[in-house]
């Protein structure tokens, strides 16, 4: 505690602070843009990329190749967390957030410019450039989330960290809905040939406008109070990644497995369900059978489900403050395990069952994803918080998300049903449940500018 004393004509100036509105907009718009870019690729990977970039493969192999390129970004994310975490813990949150947004924004625009593999001279080059851009997208997102989470939570009033932490998390459903609305609009206004030829490029090129807006907002930020205290205490880590592994490696492991079920659930709910939903009920090319929905119809169903994602992301903040992060997440993770075992019954129950599955899955997603922007940063001291939280979040992306679509397609093909996919999700939830059980509650930890592990 410290007090400011004023007398006569002199006074101690009050340090400038980011307003609540500025924090909300800056953390929300950044992650919305990042996730819009990311989901634009995920949607294209399901709908057009197999034919455009892997035209010489059969249906299943082309789809798996497209998902393999999709997974490259998840491999890049831990690299991005170390790179941007280094500067976030040494230079500051603001400048690093600007750099991460630029990295992903440029890569996304370039994806929209890549010629198809059928273009003369691009048969090999096109897939390689696509993979490179995916790596850069992952690099940027690897640094984005940690900075956005710290922007929100390090500016939050006491007792409000989990609530303010839902601001950047809300960018996930907003970005998903926005990306899919764009694809729906294009699909309904263009012919199939036009969409495949050039229409799919529009969402990627249009992201340039969103990036400009995001940069304008973030450049108006000032540094967070916690990092300012670290600088004033001359406690900035020289090599944050070395310091965080020296002092907090157990927390990195804990945070990684705490995020595992969240990642697995989300990418199965989006990428896998889309592919299963629109796959033909009977196939002749070796592809596994699906539900046979029209593409546009199922995208609308996903958007409805994602509205529940957003609503329950917001609801998770007050719940995490009232009951604690650990108790809430233990209950939700148990629910995810049960949900995994309901895959087949719900998918087999017609449109009502499928819609119920999407609503339930995205509701659980909001409840598990929302508190993570508070919980993961709370595991680490302020001078390595950007690096530690980012590494945990992004290593989990490899274990829970990078391989999830690939494994899901393989399991789907092996059983010709989603039964094994649901078991796979339940197994990831069980691992997360154990990690949460072993982790202490973090709601009341010192967060202002502590540097002790």
Automatic annotation (TrEMBL):
Entry keyword set: Cell membrane, Membrane, Symport, Transmembrane, Transmembrane helix, Transport
Annotated Major facilitator superfamily (MFS) profile domain residues: 23-444
Name of the featured protein: Putative proline/betaine transporter
Role played: May be a proton symporter involved in the uptake of osmolytes such as proline and glycine betaine.
CDD domains: MFS_ShiA_like
Bilayer topology term: Multi-pass membrane protein
Membership in a protein family: Belongs to the major facilitator superfamily. Metabolite:H+ Symporter (MHS) family (TC 2.A.1.6) family.
Annotated localization: Cell membrane
Gene Ontology cellular component terms for the protein in this record: plasma membrane
Gene Ontology molecular function: symporter activity
């Amino acid at each position: 505690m410290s007090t400011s004393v004023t007398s006569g004509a002199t006074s101690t100036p009050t340090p400038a602070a980011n307003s609540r509105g500025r924090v909300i907009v800056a953390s929300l718009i950044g992650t919305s843009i990042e996730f819009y870019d990311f989901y634009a690729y995920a949607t294209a990977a399901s709908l057009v990329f197999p034919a455009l970039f892997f035209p010489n493969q059969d249906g299943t192999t082309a789809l798996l190749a497209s998902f393999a390129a999709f997974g490259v970004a998840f491999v890049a994310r831990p690299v991005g967390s170390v790179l941007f975490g280094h500067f976030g813990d040494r230079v500051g949150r603001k400048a690093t957030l600007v750099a991460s947004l630029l990295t992903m924004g440029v890569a996304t625009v370039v994806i929209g410019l890549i010629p198809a593999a059928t273009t003369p001279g691009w048969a090999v080059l096109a897939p390689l450039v696509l993979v490179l851009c995916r790596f850069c997208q992952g690099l940027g997102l690897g640094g984005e989330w940690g900075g956005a989470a710290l922007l929100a939570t390090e500016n939050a009033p006491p007792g409000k960290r989990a609530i303010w932490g839902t601001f950047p998390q809300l960018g996930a459903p907003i970005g998903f809905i926005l990306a899919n609305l764009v694809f729906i609009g294009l699909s309904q206004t263009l012919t199939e040939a036009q969409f495949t030829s050039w229409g799919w490029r529009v969402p990627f090129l249009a992201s340039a406008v969103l990036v400009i807006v995001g940069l304008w907002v973030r450049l108006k930020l000032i540094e967070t109070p916690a990092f300012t205290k670290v600088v004033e205490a001359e406690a900035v880590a020289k090599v944050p990644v070395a310091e965080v592994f020296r002092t907090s490696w157990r927390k990195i492991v804990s945070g990684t497995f705490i995020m595992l079920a969240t990642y697995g659930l989300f990418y199965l709910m989006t990428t896998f369900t889309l592919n299963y939903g629109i796959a033909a009920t009977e196939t002749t090319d070796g592809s596994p059978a699906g539900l046979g929905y029209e593409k546009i119809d199922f995208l609308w169903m996903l958007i409805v489900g994602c509205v529940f994602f957003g609503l329950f992301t917001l609801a998770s903040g007050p719940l995490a403050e009232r009951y604690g992060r650990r108790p809430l997440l233990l209950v939700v993770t148990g629910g995810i395990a049960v949900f995994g075992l309901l895959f087949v019954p719900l998918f087999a129950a017609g449109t009502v069952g499928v819609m119920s599955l999407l609503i339930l899955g995205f509701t659980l997603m909001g409840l598990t994803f929302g508190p993570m922007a508070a919980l993961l940063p709370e595991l680490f001291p302020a001078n390595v918080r950007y690096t530690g939280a980012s590494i945990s979040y992004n290593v989990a992306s490899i274990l829970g998300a990078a391989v999830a679509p690939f494994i899901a397609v393989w399991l789907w093909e092996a059983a010709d049903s989603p039964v094994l996919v649901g078991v796979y999700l339940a197994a990831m939830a069980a691992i997360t449940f154990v990690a949460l059980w072993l982790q202490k509650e973090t709601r009341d930890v010192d967060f202002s500018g502590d540097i002790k592990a």
